[in-house]
Amino acid sequence: MKRRVLFLFLLVAVASLLSAEITLPFSMDFDSLSRGDNIPGGRIRGDADSIPKIVTIISHSGTNSLFMADYSTTDSSELIFTLPEGMPRGTVKYAFYLPAIDPGLIYCTLGTSTNSSGRVVDVQITSKGNIRCRKPEDQSLETVSEGISYDTWHTVEISWDISTNQYLLYVNGVSIAQKVLISNEAPTHLIFKVGSDAKSAHTAYLDDISLRIE
Ligand SMILES: [Ca+2]
Ligand SMILES: [Ca+2]
Fold it and tell me: How many whole angstroms from 93 Cα to the centroid of ligand 1?
């Protein structure tokens, strides 16, 4: 009986951890974390060949960054944050580093779920260094910028507002695009993904993720 109570307690504790929302303004520099640590407010996903890891090899700030390496042919590397309730407007910022060896597709998605059907904003950096935005009309990806260099840090800023049904995209502080939201809904999730289920040898580093209400 005691075991059952303990089990239920653990189940509730795990469920509350999984559903933990971030508090705003939110920032994550990974510097106080060690390899294998949980990411406060975040949830990492991936199998043994694609699980994200804290590393000290390179960093945008401080000593640490998050290495997202997808060497799995059945899974991808993901970092998921649950937003407070649903954010009708806000700004997400992050720094990324695309290595010349095994550069990876990097997705940054705001959505009403972790499924592709819930996308509100979906910005992709390709392994060739192009930046693409997903279009609301047919869910295809449109190239908005090219020439992202390897082996150096870049910053991305996305500001969205469902009252205007648009988002603004800045790369390295320069305005790149103003686009219509894929769906006019307040996102509840912020998802970073490197690689894809079938693709392999896709890697990238992330650092200095922040989120605030504009
Ligand atoms: Ca850092
Ligand atoms: Ca994969």
Answer: 13
